Amino acid sequence: MQTASPHKPVVRRQEIELIRIVCAFGIVWYHCRDIAGKLVGLEEELASGPMFAFLMISLFFAVRPSARIKPVMETARRLMKPWLIWFVFFGCVNLAMQKDFLNTEHGLIGGILIGTKPHLWYLPFIFFSIISFQFVKRRMPEALFAYSCAAIALLMLMTAEHWRPWSMTLAKPLPLYIQALTGMFIGAFMANSTFMPLWQRLGIIAAFIAAAAWFSLSVFIIGIPYIIAIVMTSLALIPKWTFQPRYTINWLSDCTMGIYLTHLLWFSVLTRLDLLVSPLAAPFIVFAASAAGVLLMKRFFPSLANQLF
Question: Using CA atoms, how far apart are residues 215 and 211, in angstroms rounded to an integer?
Answer without folding.
Answer: 6
